[in-house]
Amino acid sequence: MKITIHNVLPAVVLFTGVASTFSGHDSAFALQHKRGPVKPRRVQSLLINPDAQPDLPTAKAANKAAAATGLNLDDIQGDILVGMKKNKQLFYFFSIADPTDFKGKLAADILPLITTTNQLLSVSTQPITLVNIAFSQTGLTALNVTESLGDSFFAGGQFQDLPNLGDPGSTNWVPEFTGTGIHGVLLFASDTDDNINNSVASLESALGDSINKVYSLAAAARPAPNVGHEHFGFLDGISNPAINGFTANPMPGQSNLSAGTILLGETGDSATRPAWAKDGSFLVFRQLKQLVPEFDKFLTDNPIVQHGLTRQQGSDLLGARMVGRWKSGAPVDLAPLFDDPVLGADPTRNNDFTFQHPNAVLSKNQTRCPFSAHIRKTRPRADLSTPEVTFGHIMRAGIPYGPEVSAHEAASNTTSTERGLAFVSYQSSISGGFRLLQQTWADSASFIHSGVGVDPIIGALAGAPRVISGLDPTNAAKTVRLTTDFVVSRGGEYFFSPSLSAIASKLSV
């Protein structure tokens, strides 16, 4: 069990600004953009920390790791590396109405508020509200930033990419996501709605008519005892990777990646980038509606029938095999018939598996985990190679949105109020990150073995029925026909989350 120790301090003031680890010309930037006005120091974290998820490193450990690789945690926006640990969040999508005015306000009013990675690693340095910013290609163009960032999918935008993502056209998309009218997104995160609302109101007042609000989405971790769980009930964010230069002590089974997998211009990023883009990251946003009552009804109606299981246990097992984990986070590969909450809550064990077992043929056996299971489709582990391949990894930073299922919805087995996941991923390559996982892996009925079907959770075939095999451990050849997409894409956009120095030297001048 994790024990979080909060720093209980008297009312003091806090610099919420860039730490003084910049060198050379960057030191002037650091001094110029220290974080006034001063704020009261926090006494509890704005982040959540579910037992099952790997802990964030301490500031001391992270900076020691960063020093060994040259990573500058004071120049990287805070949301990129922390994963799925926000408590409450608001996504504020905007268009730039007056580029000249906005540039000035970006430097004077937004940059001093931007939260860095280093700031989030200690309660004593966290701001009252995290503020980050990212821009679409049309947003960068509006700011007269014309250099290619070396990613064609970012350049085209998500709406142009729609035919490749399994969505049934834009029928279900939020209208504001259709086209290229969104220039950027401001991310606000805190531990209370009031903190976020106050920050939004203050920044809107400062920005005036330089931007127009296009759309917003409020999101929040689910209430206890489901903190860290998505709306279907499964604990999320367990298998986010460790990043060299940031993660001090990777957990067993945790992917250990070069920083360039997530950050442009760092070791492991082989694409050609403009120098100013270093330490930025591509942010993929997708609003994913979840049909929870309908999903629960499907599990209730189709329990796995196996000796020793009650009907409810059979329904629970079907859901676990579709996801690849039990609701506690325990992987079915290690707990094949029943949930094991102790295993699920232990980050030293809940990722320590490869799908290989001594007495089974990896390419044929689905007794423990189906080939189509969500976690196996999106992280195949030994199915692709041993040791595990380093491509196809993303840093997931999403958060649930919408209310809990009402009694009426549960009784009628029908969703009447929208809820789902505000999906966020960071990567240095959209094609090698999000799109590989979604299009090439999750949406392919032949990955990684022919005929297994698409990912039963996020796999999509433009609204067509999905035929999945391997879900019944007693009969791997048995197929299940899914006629409802339990996850419905409401659209999104591709963004670039620049470093603080890039905002100061390139985007606001």
Automatic annotation (TrEMBL):
Residues 1-23 form the signal peptide. Keywords: Heme, Iron, Metal-binding, Oxidoreductase, Peroxidase, Signal. Residues 75-223 form the DyP dimeric alpha+beta barrel domain. The keyword Metal-binding applies. Residues 247-443 form the Dyp-type peroxidase C-terminal domain. One of its GO terms (cellular component) is cytosol. Its cofactor is heme b. One of its GO terms (molecular function) is metal ion binding. It holds the Pfam family Dyp_perox_C. PANTHER family: DEFERROCHELATASE (PTHR30521:SF4), DEFERROCHELATASE/PEROXIDASE (PTHR30521). Belongs to the DyP-type peroxidase family. NCBIfam families: Dyp_perox_fam. This is Fungal peroxidase. It comes from Mycena albidolilacea. The lineage of its organism: Eukaryota, Fungi, Dikarya, Basidiomycota, Agaricomycotina.
